[in-house]
Amino acid sequence: MAEPKRIVHPIPPFYTAESDILILGSFPSVKTREMGFFYGHPQNRFWKVAAAVYEEDVPMTVEERRAFLKRNHIALWDVIASCTIVGSSDSSIRDVAANDLRPMLEAAPVRQIYVNGRKAEEMYNRYILPAIGRQAVCLPSTSPANAAWSLERLTEAWKRIRTAE
Description:
This protein is α/β, with parallel strands linked by helices. The protein has one domain: 3-Layer(aba) Sandwich (Uracil-DNA Glycosylase, subunit E), CATH 3.40.470.10. Helices cover about 35% and strands about 20% of the residues. It has 7 helices and 7 strands; from the N terminus they run ββαααβββαβαβαα. It has helices at about 30-35, 45-55, 60-70, 100-105, 120-130, 150-160, 160-165, and strands at about 5-10, 20-25, 75-80, 80-85, 95-100, 110-115, 135-140. The strands form 2 sheets. The protein has a 4-stranded parallel β-sheet. A hairpin with an 8-residue loop joins strand 4 and strand 5 (about 95-100). The longest helix is centred in the last third of the chain and has 15 residues, at about 120-130.
């Protein structure tokens, strides 16, 4: 079994001055950390779901993903700035330090914050909500660990990021 490691989040937040939706994950997977951009694990369904919600082709490269987010006014980051973790296992996360969302929220007109899954919700409510006082809406996780949710069911649930426009 892999040993727990203390890891500092290696990916800066993605947002523009037009980002009005913020989606927060918990902490990037090993594959995402290797890729250097959000939701880099090939089995994570985030990009497929987001593309279906916005009725676009699935962005494949980091450049296409950045363009997709910019075009749709989406900011991405994670709740956790650093933690002790075993591999990519959310259930192993300990010793959490949260990201400070205030600079992003001051720079972008974020009208709604969403969290991607229950672990992100738990961490958000524990560490970020008290600091900024803004509720987040929990969406079902796009992680491959959430196998109970089909791509179609996830897409239906995630459509609320557009209907809130």
